[in-house]
Amino acid sequence: MLTSLTVRQFALMQGVQMELDAGMTVFTGETGAGKSILIDALGAAFGARASADWVRHGAERAEVIATWSGKPGSMIERRIATILEEQDIEPDDELILRRIIGKDGRSRAYVNGVPVPLKVLQTIGSLCLDLHGQHEHQALLHPEFQRQLLDGGIDEKTLKTVRQAYGRWQAAESQLASLNQDRGETEQQAAWMREELARLEVLQIEEGLADSLQQEVEAGRHHAQIQQSAAEALLLLDEGDPSARDLMARAGHCITQSEAYHPGLESSREMMDQIDAILGELGGELQRVLDSSFDEAGLHAAEERLMQLHEAMRRHDADEAGLLHLMDEWQQRLSALDTAEWDETALKEARDQAEADYRKAAGKLSGAREKKATLLCKALRPFLDRLALAGMQVKFEVRPCDTPSGWLASGWDEVEMMLMSNPGEPWRPLSAVASGGELSRLVLALKGCGAVADMPHIAVFDEVDTGIGGETAWCVGELLASMGRDRQVLVISHLAQVAASADAQVIIRKGEQDGRTTTSLESIVSEQRQMEVARMLGGHDEEDIQHAARMLERGSALRDAALSR
Question: N or C: which terminus of the chain carries fewer CB neighbours within 10 A?
């Protein structure tokens, strides 16, 4: 609930501080006193779009601070706790929302003293505040809102089953469309991919192939030089006079004569033995090089393969790894095209099964909506009667759409609220029949019977009593007071019956201070309240005052009756 509201330099409100209690609070006052300013201030605190007109003339900025306290353990409080955690804001027993609006129209938002994006304030506002103004009832005209009135009382599992079946059906349809699109572009592309794959497969590509081929080509082109180098090296190593191996043998003999007398000579002799073994292997390697023959055909093949590899790398702007990746991708695409008929059959089977599942789930949901519609209309009846809408008949038409083009994740039903204004007249769509006042009372009846699910803890009603009077006004007051047992209800009203039904009353006054017009708020009780209700009746003579007293007594009795239910 809203526990306090502070407004500074906001339009005609120079400085207003107000404490609020649970139940129903009514705001009254002369026409033009500034009741709409209060609505704007509440909206500003809970994230409404800022306006430079909100800043009091001559002031640099306007400021609104609202303190909110939730019901412990409620769904709304848990969702707000999640928002605070996401914004790294320490939770507290109360939620303090602050909005500062500059004279240029720009604004800043704070939650518990921490700056937050306006979107966060708006999200919190949608959870905490239900602003039912003169234009809010227009939402009832939207088919989506009318459908949600029925879905609010339907098992979530039934709704979820429809959403999941729709998702599977959409996925299968999308895969089929993608397959058909691929097949539409296949013939020319497939021929090109097969031709290019054949050219690349001949090259037997592997990573590092270009370097390997380049080395092979270089060896073939320098064969004579390689033979000469190997022959000269072999001569010096093993066939010269003296040869390298002869000199090593002589050095080893010298060391062997004295190695027993010094460890350094012993280790030197061991190293020379290792060197001699290496020289033996080196001679064999050089001899193999010397014995190799020149393969002219192999050289030409390596040069041709290297040239084709470089051309392929240039053509596709890729190295060996990139070419291998392309080949793998083409092979997969060609394989998919080759098995397209099998895939299409499987996808059609999956699509048909998903369609059957959706039809079954959507049909079940349609039945649930039909039952909910009957129950809702029955629950609405006593509220409509009390709100002077006894002649109005209400029904919901639930029209299934068997054509897939009309299917949605919310089901295949078109839901429309229909009214019969008077007995014997035809049923017509709500939008074509109901007046503004009737729509407003109809929304009030829907809220009164609990048809609007997950309602915020604070309900604000602006001019909900427009166009009514007498006993109907008492019914509106009684219904609002009854709603105040579960939620905090704030009502702006011109009707004495509604004011008398409230738990608390606040006067909105327009006055003058230091040559400036100001709007102030004052909580009133007892005799003050009696005088205000008398003013609302049209006068302040003794008869009006006594009438006001009787109305306040009746309002108290209505509240007691609502509390006992």
Answer: C
* Predicted confidence band of residue 134 (pLDDT cuts 50, 70, 90): very low
Single-letter amino acid, residue 428? R
121 close to 47: Cβ distance less than 8 angstroms: yes
Give the C-alpha distances (Å, rounded to integers) separating 96 from 443, 456, 490: 30, 17, 19
Residue 411 DSSP symbol? B
Distance from the Cα of residue 194 to its chain's centroid? 44
In this structure, what DSSP letter does residue 434 have? -
Q: Is the pLDDT of residue 353 over 80?
A: yes
- Is it the case that residue 183 has pLDDT exceeding 70? no
- Distance in angstroms (rounded) separating the CA atoms of residues 536 and 28: 9
φ/ψ of residue 254, rounded to 5:
-60, -45
Structure letter (DSSP) for residue 471? H
pLDDT 10s digits, 199-236: 888 888 888 888 888 887 777 777 778 778 877 787 78
Task: Answer for the pair 540, 534: CB distance below 8 angstroms, yes or no.
Answer: yes
Q: What is the pLDDT of residue 135?
A: 45
Domain residue spans in the chain?
2-133+421-564, 186-338
Residue 10 near residue 63, CB atoms below 8 Å: yes
What number of CA atoms fall less than 13 Å from residue 92's CA on the CB side? 13
pLDDT at 318: 87
Q: Which CATH code for domain 2-133+421-564?
A: 3.40.50.300
Nearest-angstrom CA–CA distance, 35 and 463: 10
Quick one: tokens of 324? 């291998």
pLDDT in tens, 241-268: 787 777 888 888 788 877 777 888 878 8
Q: What integer is the mean pLDDT of 349-359?
A: 90
202 contact partners, CB below 8 Å, separation of at least 6: 308
Measured distance CA(435)–CA(28) in Å, rounded:
25
Q: Give the HSE-up count for residue 145: Cα atoms under 13 Å, Cβ half-sphere.
A: 12
**Distance separating alpha carbons of residues 310 and 317, to the nearest angstrom:** 10
Task: Supply 144's token pair.
Answer: 């989506």
What's at 504, amino acid-wise? A
Category of 23 on φ-ψ map: left (φ > 0), alpha (ψ -120 to 50) or beta: left
Instruction: Tell me the two tokens of residue 211.
Output: 């370097």
Single-letter code of the amino acid located at 262 = H
Cα dist. 205→308, 323, 324, 326, 514 in Å?
11, 8, 7, 12, 92
Q: 200 and 324 in contact (C-beta within 8 Å)?
A: no
| Residues 394, 417 contacting (CB under 8 angstroms) | yes
3-state secondary structure 270-330: HHHHHHHHHHHHHHHHHHHHHHCCCCHHHHHHHHHHHHHHHHHHHHHCCCHHHHHHHHHHH
Using H for helix, E for strand and C for coil, what is the string for 33-100? Answer: CCHHHHHHHHHHHCCCCCCHHHECCCCCEEEEEEEECCCCCCHHHHHHHHHHHHCCCCCCCCEEEEEE
Backbone angles phi, psi at 10, to 5 degrees: -110, 105
Tens digits of residue pLDDT in 503-518: 999 999 888 888 888 8
